[in-house]
């Protein structure tokens, strides 16, 4: 549920907000304010969530780094694999697929 309120802006702030709306960044000044408050809420209220994401990523990197060598693709294999994929794609394009 949205609640209608009144806010005060300086002339400079209002002109800036109106420019953002006129160039299409936001549909209205209300949308601009809502978007910015939403961003602030994510920054202020959920720093633990960001830390959890970074921790999860670090754990995944550690897990992948601990995989046995036979589960890794070497640089040479990767180059060959991409060359093969490019060749196959070109062949399909020429064949009209």
What's the SSE blueprint?
Layout: H1 11-22, H2 29-45, H3 47-65, H4 75-95
Q: State the end-to-end CA separation.
A: 51 Å
Q: Which class do the helix and strand fractions yield? A: mainly alpha
Tell me the number of strands. 0
Q: Provide a count of the helices.
A: 4
Poorly predicted parts: none
Task: Name the beta content range.
Answer: under 5%
Question: Can you walk me through this structure?
Answer:
With 97 residues, this protein is an all-alpha fold. The protein is 71% helix and 0% strand. The chain has helices at residues 11-22, 29-45, 47-65, 75-95. The longest helix has 21 residues, at 75-95. The two termini are 51 Å apart. The mean pLDDT is 84.
Features:
single chain; 97 residues; elongated
